[in-house]
Design a protein that fits this description.
The structure is a homodimer. By secondary structure, chain A is α/β, with parallel strands linked by helices. Chain A is 27% helix and 24% strand. The first copy, chain A, contains 16 helices and 24 strands. Chain A has a 9-stranded mixed β-sheet with strand order 15-14-13-17-16-19-18-20-21, sandwiched between helices. The first copy, chain A, has a 5-stranded parallel β-sheet with strand order 2-3-4-5-6. The first copy, chain A, has a 4-stranded antiparallel β-sheet with strand order 1-10-11-12, with no helix packed on it. In chain A, α2 packs across α3, α4 runs parallel beside α6 and α11 runs antiparallel to α12. Chain A starts with 15 loop residues before the first strand and ends with a strand. Chains A and B meet through α7 of A and α7 of B.
Chain lengths: 529, 529
């Protein structure tokens, strides 16, 4: 600031120098690459700090997973801060790899890059004052506590705020933003991989001239191919300006406001004594990055060449009980139907997918059974959720309508939030092979067609991430999608993402866990396998 | 927030409920009453939290003084937060009661109400990277560090900010505010007892539509009679609105902004989970207080009835070497003038006061000497600074023009920043008596006229404060002023305040310390006694 001369001078040629952008809430694991690879993708977009909630790896590896993420993100030009995952497992119905209680958090809570408690998704136990939840909130009292309270409102919201959460990144409409701001919360406006109507919301905020000082940006989950294509936090800033938000306010939302809310000292502004972590943009409308400076050094492809060691704790995490083909038999008797020989139909509960959405419908359909066992066809596929953390041998089996798999199977170990192995298929042989293919490489995604593994993305780190080069990851992802289409997955939805959420017992209306078919609406099992 | 019913309901009758106001920087000792009495004065004005820098008592009692203030302000409806005094003594030329180094601060730094490092007044040692100062800045790295940098600008300001200070309360003009905001500082707008042109500055801020999110209010030093007469932080809010600042912004400056800057969690707003510490104002123009609620309880005269014990460490702090009248002789030889008998004049350096201001002028005048000893007259008074902490026997003697004391003396132990005993008089007998009067009561203020103590305000706590009832303090203060006028102090300035600053070797141009006459401009002694 001011006239100085030094050894390395840089001519910005009239471009706009902004503080480095901050992603206020992200699950790095959802990028499927290590923090180091993730940094290589987001830094060129001008994001120089992220506040990461390692909730996914924590569900697989417990606190060892969090330590691993902490170590794997050390000493990088991208500053990775952490929030302690608050809800592991996500629900009492999830059989995840670990449970984390307040006592388990104490040591990690003292780390310098650990800012506070991560998104408190379980608002029911929070507002009910459930003891294990209160212990966590108490441990982080006085620090930032992230909320996650979609459509929570009125007295319920008041109770939630009293318990501790001070931010929310789930607002989907203007009134929700307004009510939560008035409740003293900071609002994280999210544009990730999932479409969420953020442009409409940004326009409403601009039209109402709502003060933006307590608003900031986040991606939550955004795949690397999307980041490479459209940008990261700079993309949200661009949307905001397009929607009528003042460019200076947009820059503050992308940097300063997050730094203040999360207590990041000497960050979020360009000023003496602040970190010289800055981005040069072409203009404050498109936010195309010309150059990035991290801690005073110009960012280049080699800036991230840091030899992070993969902690052994997060490798070889697929620990399944021995599996036989017979375990894939879905019997009519699970719903109390009588066992019969020969072909017949049974009115059976079915998970019906909704094109382009993550919600599902619970429907009862006449499905084909032979010798008391469900037989998939072009309309109805078989879904299995296989416990893979503690070799319990649990397998949940169900029927899915809408994904149209033929002569093949798709399997995944990235399956929120318990990250068990989920496999969808038309025949037991291909399903078995797909699971074996994942087991062999420590997890990931696989598509099988007529006894051949068509495509596979190995994710050996907790079954969630890989340290393979980004180009290789992108190529294999494309191959997976192509293979999924080949075995019948319809256009319009990403079949891999859909699969990843079919076992999450908090999204309406019906899900499959490793125990059986779960009705999310009334939080109870329709049947157990 | 919302419709609730409860046992005690209160009808606000359309008045304005605001978060409790916050004084972002104050020296409580300057009120001359204990934190408890101070609370009784400011709470009815709507101030519910103050951020106190116990710099004055620290200069007398060291860290024990800070502990005492901490204990004396515990469990009150007024929340007293602290900043660690950073410059004790204020300069190397001050002979204060204690020196505080980084090592001495470590234990106190961990206390929950200790927020950070107090105003770093010594900007020279700060920008020079002097080691003992850097140790303190390092100890409080990552926490709030208050600045104090009047008119520091350009590269000097940059260096100062790099060292750590992130706030400033010394801005006197718009350009200074703008430059310091741009340097990443938060600005505390101060309206205390001293007139400082704040209305003009507030109008300039309003006219320029400068964002106020990093601005807040403070009093620094404000006497209780002024607070009772015109208000406290609510008075600054009133001025701000009068000058054109949006009333909502003014309320934020008076509450929310300070809470955010100083990291006061769950404070500064009315929202679920925030402290129910609120003020009911008649309107957002006059800010007259209707009622105050502290932690959900309505404030009454009895809310502060808490039996704080006065720590023994801060009592009986006047520790002078035995004093004889002869010590008051100011010899012409101190400036190298030859000793002579009889009456004659000597061109002698004189402290010339400026009406209505704290600055002084260094002038050389022909003053009356008899038998080599200075003889005061209607124009020239004698000033003495007597070391009173470690009984060193130091006495500085000088000549003051402009206060016109006749047949009397005024003495004080509230004398920034070292708080030695300062006495101004026309004859040695009355000066001696005034000092003895202070010694007897543990410090304070005294006015003597013709061998009679006309008025005295005992300040037995560190020679700075009293726990006497507020009405008694006010009555004695008025009596002191009346008595000072009687012995000749001119109208237009408060002679007691003037006296309090005559020994502070940082205000231009010339001061007297317990060692001798000090030229502030070139930071060196003109003569030593």
């Amino acid at each position: 600031m001011g006239e100085y001369s030094c050894e390395n001078e840089y001519d910005a040629k009239g471009a706009y120098l902004c503080p480095g952008f901050i992603d206020a809430h992200v699950h790095i694991e959802s990028s499927m690459v290590t923090p180091n690879s993730y940094a290589r993708v987001v830094l060129p977009q001008g994001t120089t700090a992220v506040i990461a909630d390692p909730h996914e790896i924590a569900n697989v590896c417990g606190t060892e997973g969090i330590w691993a993420m902490y170590k794997m993100s050390n000493m990088m030009p991208l500053w990775v801060y952490f929030m302690m995952p608050s809800c592991v497992p996500a629900t009492p119905f999830d059989h995840a790899g670990a449970s984390i209680y307040a006592d388990d958090m104490k040591q990690l809570a003292q780390k310098s890059r650990m800012l506070g408690l991560g998104e408190v998704m379980d608002y029911v136990s929070t507002t009910n004052g459930e003891e294990t939840m209160l212990d966590k909130l108490t441990l982080f009292d006085g620090r930032v506590i992230d909320g996650h309270a979609p459509l929570v409102s009125g007295k319920e919201l008041n109770a939630y705020c009293v318990a501790g959460p001070g931010t929310d990144h789930e607002c989907s409409c203007f009134d929700e933003v307004l009510e939560k701001l008035r409740a003293g919360m900071s609002i994280l406006l999210r544009v990730g991989s999932a479409a969420n109507g953020m442009e409409e919301l940004l326009c409403a905020i601009a039209d109402a001239k709502l003060p933006t000082k307590n608003m900031m940006f986040c991606t939550d989950d955004k795949h690397i191919e999307n980041i490479l294509r459209e940008g990261h936090i700079n993309y949200i800033a661009k949307l905001a300006v397009k929607c009528g938000i003042d460019p200076i306010d947009a820059v503050c939302m992308a940097s300063y406001n997050a730094a203040r809310t999360y207590g990041l000292k000497r960050q979020g502004a360009i000023a003496p004594g602040y970190r010289a972590t800055m981005v040069l943009f072409d203009n404050l409308r498109d936010f195309n990055v010309i150059d990035v400076f991290a801690m005073g050094k110009r960012y280049t492809d080699r800036s991230c060449d840091i030899g992070h060691i993969l902690p052994a704790d997060v490798l070889n995490t697929v620990n399944m009980a021995p599996l036989t083909k017979e375990r894939f038999s879905l019997k009519a008797s699970v719903i109390g139907a009588s066992e019969n020989n020969g072909d017949y139909t049974v009115k059976f509960p079915v998970i019906k997918t909704v094109p382009g959405q993550l919600v599902t419908k619970l429907v009862y359909e006449d499905v084909h059974f032979r010798d008391s066992e469900f037989v998939p066809d072009r309309r109805f596929d078989k879904l299995a959720v296989i416990e893979r953390h503690h070799a319990t041998g649990n397998i949940g089996l169900g029927i899915v309508e809408g994904l149209c798999i033929e002569r093949g199977a798709i399997a995944a170990s990235v399956t929120h939030d318990a990250h068990n192995i989920v496999v969808l298929g038309e025949n037991n042989d291909d399903m078995m092979l797909a699971v074996e293919a994942l087991k062999e490489c420590g997890g990931g995604f696989a598509v099988v067609h007529q006894s051949i593994v068509l495509a596979r993305l190995p994710l050996p780190i907790a079954g969630l991430m890989t340290d393979a080069p980004i180009e290789e990851v992108l190529r294999k992802q494309r191959a997976l999608i192509d293979a999924a289409r080949l075995v019948g997955a319809p256009e319009g939805s990403d079949p891999l993402i859909l699969l990843s959420f079919l076992a999450l017992p908090v999204i309406p209306e019906v899900r499959l866990t490793d125990e059986g078919l779960f009705n999310v609406t009334n939080m109870s099992y329709i049947y157990k396998n």
